[in-house]
Task: structure prediction
Amino acid sequence: MERELKPSPSRHVRSIGLDIFFTIITFGLYNIYIQYCQVKAVNVMLGEEKYSWGWWLFLTIVTFGLYHIYHEYRQATDIEHKAGGVQHLVLLSVALSCFGLAPVCDAIQQSHINRYFGSTSL
Result:
């Protein structure tokens, strides 16, 4: 039996400022939790279980981070498609991830996720 994914704005809207703060003070480890939250949010946006946090974590570790760049590409493509009006998110996400700035990439993606769920605040 498949469970139906329904949008829950308060559950998927995150404070980008707090996410960045906690990522900095935990030396990047908090970004793993942010990735978990974004996987859940994008799955709800798509209405299907396309992304798996467990597989993301496993493949990112096994490929020494290379899979994460591909994951950011895929996720940015879906956010761009569902959010509408977003330009260059895919290119920006891949470039930032390649240069080790994945938390910045996640902050930009989270701003689009927040807008999709109806929040305009940071």
